[in-house]
Amino acid sequence: MEYKNLIAGSWTETTAASANINPSDTSDVLGYAADSPAEDMDRAISAAREAAAGWAASTPQQRFDVLDAIGTEILARKAELGHLLSREEGKTLAEGIGESARAGQIFKFFAGETLRQAGEMFASVRPGVGVEVTRSPMGVVGLITPWNFPIAIPAWKIAPALAYGNAVVLKPAELTPGCAYALGEIISRSGLPEGVFNMVFGQGSVIGKRLVESCDVDALSFTGSVQTGSAIAAACGAQRKKLQLEMGGKNPMVVLDDADLDIAVEASINGAFYSTGQRCTASSRLIVTADIHDRFVAALSDRMAGLRVGNALDETTQIGPVVDERQLKKDLSYLDIAGSEGGRILGGQALQRSTKGFYLAPALVTETTNGMRINQEEVFGPVASVIRVADYEEALMVANDSPFGLSAGICTKSLKYATDFKANVEAGMTMVNLPTAGVDYHVPFGGTKGSSLGAREQGSHAKEFYTKVKTAYTLA
Q1: Beta strand segments in 317-438, E
Q2: For 85-133, what is each residue's pLDDT tens digit?
Q3: What residues are labeled active site?
Q4: Fold exhibited by the domain 251-432
Q5: Which domain of life does this protein belong to (predicted)?
Q6: What are phi and psi of 432, to 5 degrees?
Q7: Which end of the chain is more exposed for a tag (fewer CB within 10 A), N or C?
Q8: CATH number, domain 2-247+451-475
């Protein structure tokens, strides 16, 4: 399989390509993705610029028909797309199918949003003057997406961009080109005019940089690392380009003495280890009050030991492989650091399976303090640490002692503490007796502090990023 660029409605080849490797079986090559030069990105941006005005003038019905067709095909093919996703990224088959279905639901939601767009009318403070507030497309929107949700995150950026009348240039993650290509093929058959959606594969340092720096791109949405996001923020700030960043988290799960132990363990297992912990909303810091600490650690350790790690395509697998060798080495290095700083490590060893892959046993690091690196830096693997605290007040203080603020959870039977936590934890999303990971597609997604910058993603709040506001005054 050759993953080609989609530029101005045509699939175009490049002379260089990179192999797409299955992390569950490194002998399995899914295909080869274009390793594009910067000039290919220039052509994609030009195509989007040329098509932008026509799509901005399209009717709500035209936009609905396109997005609805995309969502319908994704949902009809969710098993096939989920299999591809699991083979390419390493999620379990159930997770891959679930993510693919979510992508279809996102397109369906934003198909509906095309028919719900409205303006506002105000009476002026001046007699005889009317005030009208409307929204219009940004123009050309650049999208840079990560590998950990290789179909859902492109969907939740592409769908609102198109729904609100923008032309799009997508730069997918290098590690997961297959899902992006499959999505691009579906979009190319949806009836969308040529040039409205463009997709270019290649290295972030080459084509991603060109997308960020182009003066012909009106807005840019990025999901990825803090380091890359910070560099993008500096570049876009210099251009005064509209920007949306999602950059990760170090999410706390607080477990209070009165928590239902079974609920707390299951929420922590799900949040910390499912999707191989490769979620920006993963529960990486488990903050546990003293009276329940030992029982919680014992129950969590027993539950963790029973998790089945294996090939993502095996239906009995509960935890798939880490995405690639570099990520596996990073995870192991953080466990070494945690051990050197005094943490006690349960699990966390590299595993051998019948196929050669990047398998890692889930790891729990106990006897930690919040100042340790394992509790301040994002690991992005099946690794969670436990922090013992005295009471709720200390738990909240520790939860907020982080440069990140994406998602936070609390397990408690107390309405008082749950209410206080929702009000005072420094996070964009809060869960009560639920995993910190796992959000709905029709409500806002995003964080505070170092996790996010700009308008929220998903739901009707997405219009805040993908549109600009105009206020018009008329003398009657």
Answers
A1: 344-347, 350-351, 359-360, 363-368, 383-389, 404-405, 407-411, 429-432
A2: 999 999 999 999 999 999 999 999 999 999 999 999 999 999 999 999 9
A3: 246
A4: Aldehyde Dehydrogenase; Chain A, domain 2 (3.40.309)
A5: Bacteria
A6: -115, 115
A7: C
A8: 3.40.605.10
